[in-house]
Design brief:
CATH class: Alpha Beta
Strand order of the largest sheet: 3-2-1-11-12-9
Radius of gyration: 17 Å
Distance between the termini: 33 Å
Number of strands: 12
Largest sheet: 6 strands, mixed
Number of domains: 1
Helix content: 25-40%
Bound molecules: zinc ion
Order of helices and strands: EHEHEHHHEEHEEEEEEEHH
CATH topology: Purple Acid Phosphatase, chain A, domain 2
Shape: globular
């Protein structure tokens, strides 16, 4: 079984299309939340994910905020501006789809959440959060998004020792027996690890491999559309630097 793993699409249709082209032929998709927010095509992105057919999708904080179910007090000014625009823009069927998404889902061998496993809206940004997620895991693999940084943590079952590596340029993780893994595939639509290329992953369950990959997309088209729609220019500019 080969899963395409997508996270943090954030209304960036050009990035999503480029990633899905690379993923053609996978058996199913795992979507780690934040389909909307920031970007100029929230409806098209939700519709594209809905049309994937075999997709297991969890909800992110921006998805909840876009349907009025998550306070934006902790959002920065630009994120809040974009969410207010997204709230106006979203169609009723797409709002209903986002409202139907769970905060956590499980497939054989893996659990999927947007943030950390104990709190799906918490950022998994270091060893402390990784440890609490490892302790809550019953599957060998946990797939997370939310930070838009491609990276992974592993824990030795025997010693409890934790390791960590960034996957800013992509990379191949060979899953070993006796270890647990937390993998963040990075952001499709708004990478924040200094690499502006769209980030995603392929999990091959028979090979026991998760491969994080990066792909170029026409980010100038996304930026131009954001400017035309009057979305904050800082949000368009950050796409160019991947921060
Ligand atoms: Zn996000």
């Amino acid at each position: 079984m080969r899963y395409g793993v997508l996270s943090d699409i954030h209304g960036n249709l050009e990035a999503l299309r480029a990633v899905l082209r690379e993923l053609s032929g996978v058996d199913a998709y795992l979507c780690l939340g934040d389909l909307v927010g920031y970007g100029p095509n929230p409806n098209e992105c939700v519709e594209t994910v809905r049309a994937l057919g075999s997709v297991h999708c969890v909800v992110g904080n921006h998805d909840l905020a876009a349907i009025g179910k998550y306070a934006t007090d902790w959002f920065n000014f630009y994120a809040r501006e974009a969410i207010m625009w997204t709230q106006e823009e979203l169609s009723e069927p797409n709002r209903a789809f986002l409202a139907s998404l769970p905060t956590k889902t499980t497939v054989p061998g893996a659990v999927v959440v947007h943030g950390s496993l104990p709190d799906p809206m918490e950022y998994l940004v270091g060893e402390a959060e990784a440890r609490s997620t490892f302790e809550a895991m019953t599957e060998p693999l946990c797939l997370v998004g939310h930070t838009h940084v491609a990276e992974y943590y592993w824990r030795e079952n025997y010693s409890g020792e934790i390791g960590h590596a960034l996957l800013t340029k992509g990379g191949r993780i060979e899953l070993q027996l006796g270890r647990r893994y937390i993998v963040n595939p990075g952001g499709v639509g708004q990478p924040r690890d200094g690499n502006p290329r769209a980030s995603y992953a392929v999990w091959d369950t028979s090979q026991e491999v998760v491969e994080v990959r990066r792909v170029n997309y026409p980010l100038n088209l996304t930026q131009r559309r954001m400017k035309q729609l009057g979305l904050p220019s800082a949000l368009a500019e950050r796409l160019g630097v991947g921060k």
